[in-house]
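INFO worker-7 received task bundle
INFO bundle size: 2
INFO processing item 0
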Amino acid sequence: SEHLKNGGWNKFEKLIFVSNWQMQAYQAYYGFPWYKAMVLQNAIEPITPNKGNTDEKIKLIYCTTPHRGLEILLPVFDQLSKKYDNIELDVFSSFKAYGWEERDKPYEQLFDFAKNHPKINYHGYQPNEVVRDALSKAHIFAYPSIWMETSCMALMEAMSAGCVCVHPNYAALYETAANWTFMYQWCQDKRDHAKEFHGVLDTVIREINSDPIQSQIRGQKTYADVFYGWQMRKLQWNALLETLAKQKGIIS
């Protein structure tokens, strides 16, 4: 992005960002004028929920790379698994998603812990259609993020899939969630973060069948499907490109 410095932004008709948080961070750093920027968020294909009975099993899921909070999730889940007999965690996590398998090495102990835990299923990297199927069956998206997300498609998909989403208000996550999720105050100290996450996740597990949570899930899914669906986003992209093409005289 360094070519945006010293007026480099002038080379472009428009700078497109995936969240307001990202756009404002870039503008503050590179100093381009606001009229040069625009937010067009990421988009997903909606997911149809296919949940099992929570009285029999409550399924949790983590489906992003390990450096985004897996080190907080696993010990917290381990503690809660001793309190609740009916919870299970699916972990889809590997840098293989980006073709960077060598970056998994620092997290091998975490992966081994997950593989050896009786209530955790470690899946490593899997294609998106496999993850989407798992999200459709999951009840809780457990994401104690320690990474500054510019946007979060995993959260968008989890919201669409009807998962109760538990995560901090860090970077662009609060914007992506749009107040439809169970958000908690992010903590820089990882032990304090784990305590905050544990408290909210414990509450969600205990109250997952309550009317307020079930009502929130329904509203959350409707929001995600409309505002993060490609039907909406393609209209916005087409409108932008047509406007720019008319300004340049490419089309009339």
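INFO item 0 finished
INFO processing item 1
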Amino acid sequence: MRRALAGLTTRGRSFVAAGATAVACAFALGERDLLRAGVLVLVLPLLCTLAVARTRYRLACARRLAPPRVQVGQESRVDLRLENVSRLPSGLLMVEDRVPYALGGRARFVLDRIEPHGKRELGYRIRSDVRGRYRVGPLTVRLADPFGMVELVRSFSLSDTLTVTPALVALPSEPLGGAWSGGGDSIAGAVSAAGEDDVTPREYRHGDDLRRVHWRSTARHGELMVRREEQHFRSSGTLFLDTRRRAHRGEGPAGSFEQAVSAAASIGVHLVRAGLSLRYVTDAGETLPAASADGGFEGLLLDRLAITRRSKDPSLTAGVAALLGRT
């Protein structure tokens, strides 16, 4: 009841004030008609408060954000399902989903009535021109009486997280000079001819592939020796991003910092999809360990670049140390 009284709207508070004033004037002037009118005006919002406070129906909420990661300027859709899990029909519901201002502001809906065990499907779209990570939700429901005297707010705990990544620029799919990945016969033959010392050989057995013969070990032991297993290699690289404030000029999407972040995202995604094992380093020494496309590095890189901000570091010392593997 206390929560319901705290939920009196401006109209409800006005009725209470007007009713109380009319009652006081009626006693002062001795007017019974004014007293009856004052009591009616005073009791109406109190009855509405009691009705809302005694509401026994329960609501359940389910939500879905698709997709949870978008590029700058792209749209994502929020789908909501509101269900009345009680045996009583609901009254007037004002539904509001909390949405950050950068995504377009709050989403509001008005539902007249939800029958017992009934469902309502709601949906809206969000987009942002600024990269970042945004919390969408939770959903709040305002229970109101038919006269608009009282509003009781109930909030759900579920929320979603939308990640807005930098804009990606499609790069030409040309083979990288000097780059190769994976393993195979050609690589096995090169290793066999070169005869690296770090290959652990064993004695030749009937049925072994002659292409796996390790000639240096064969000459050393005087009998055929083969590699225990074929070595696999993958090209690797490092993506370095200078986030120092002093190294960039301009603000907003046209500024050099946003352009650099977009370039880093585009280059990183292109190299990972080309099969390179890539790691990410910044001037502050922040790193992402080397991984390929199969290791989910693309998603990790985009998530990190979505929240990257300018640093106040004056030098590249920490970044160079991380780049050279000294940290």
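INFO item 1 finished
INFO post-check item 1: The radius of gyration is 34 Å.
INFO post-check item 1: Confidence is low (pLDDT under 50) at residues 178-198.
INFO worker-7 idle
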